[in-house]
Amino acid sequence: MDSLACNMSLCSKGTLCATQLNVTSAAPASLTTGAAKDTTTIQTSASPNTTTAAATTIPLTTANATTLTTHNTTITTTQAHTTHGNTSSHAPTTHSTTHASTTSTVPTPPPLPQPSTGEYRVNQTDNSTCLMANMGLQISYKQGETFESVNLEPNGTTASGNCGKNNSESSLTLHSPIISILFVFKNVSSKFWLHSFNATVKRSGVDFSDGNLNLSLWKASFGSSYMCRKEQSYNITDTLVLHTFDLRIQPFAVVNDRFSTAYECAVDDTSILIPIIVGASLAGLILIVVIAYAIGRRKTYVGYQTL
């Protein structure tokens, strides 16, 4: 360099004197700014010296890249430190800070308690009872994307209906300030069943109504009652579910205002357990006999030797 004020003879081994270095000519600095990614890069380079093998660069070159996103902030800093005759480089240091987005969740309402059991009657013109029902009822209906549940409270619920002619069909209507329910029973060939069910719910501005006219539930013989003490859930439609508790109903041939012999649902019927227990016991006994026989035969062959 012509403009250097350092005497080349004063330094040994052809190395420039760091204390007497006076850089007057350098390549023009370039400034690049990317507005899209908020990145600024400043590069400065000195003119190369053909006399000196180890060129001295500007002491510090820093590239700062800052990227700003909505939830994550990443800062990357790269530094290159120059010593006399050697250049040392440190790996980029990255500081990452993540802010988790906060979302609010709607709490799930607690399940409803078991509804109270109500006693409902339908009378004929002579004031005799033609239909009897004792049960607790709960309705689940689809409101939007979720199901809502409501209990039918016996207090404030009125019962009405019709036993029909020739005992071929009977109906029971339960009406409360919130829920209205209609049961329709069929009797064919001395067998009855729940043939139709409809429910209407009106509360908090909601007006829901749905039903099914082709059911085959609660089948029993004519002149008997149907009973299911445990909770049962029936998918009436895709948007309507019926839950029953302590159910006992007789829609035909009621005598002296009393339930006749009950046909129990499969959940309540424990008589089927007796054959299962007896069969399992016999199978276990047979297995033990077979094992004992096999062990005895093996010992017999070991005790005698072939001549």
UniProtKB/TrEMBL annotation:
Topological category with respect to the lipid bilayer: Single-pass type I membrane protein
Residues covered by the Lysosome-associated membrane glycoprotein 2-like luminal domain: 115-254
GO biological process, one term: protein targeting to lysosome involved in chaperone-mediated autophagy
Domain Lysosome-associated membrane glycoprotein 2-like transmembrane intervals: 274-305
Regions that span the bilayer: 272-295
Location of the region described as Disordered in the Swiss-Prot/TrEMBL record: 79-122
Keyword Transmembrane found: yes
Keyword vocabulary terms for this entry: Cell membrane, Disulfide bond, Endosome, Glycoprotein, Lysosome, Membrane, Signal, Transmembrane, Transmembrane helix
Stretches with biased composition (Low complexity): 79-106
Cystine bridges: C228-C265
InterPro entries to which the protein is assigned, alphabetical: Lamp2-like_luminal, Lamp2-like_TM, Lysosome-assoc_membr_glycop
Compartment(s): Cell membrane; Endosome membrane; Lysosome membrane
One GO cellular component term noted in the UniProt record for this chain: late endosome membrane
Domain of life: Eukaryota
PANTHER family reported for this sequence: LYSOSOME-ASSOCIATED MEMBRANE GLYCOPROTEIN (PTHR11506), LYSOSOME-ASSOCIATED MEMBRANE GLYCOPROTEIN 2 (PTHR11506:SF6)
Family that this chain belongs to: Belongs to the LAMP family.
Protein name: Lysosome-associated membrane glycoprotein 2
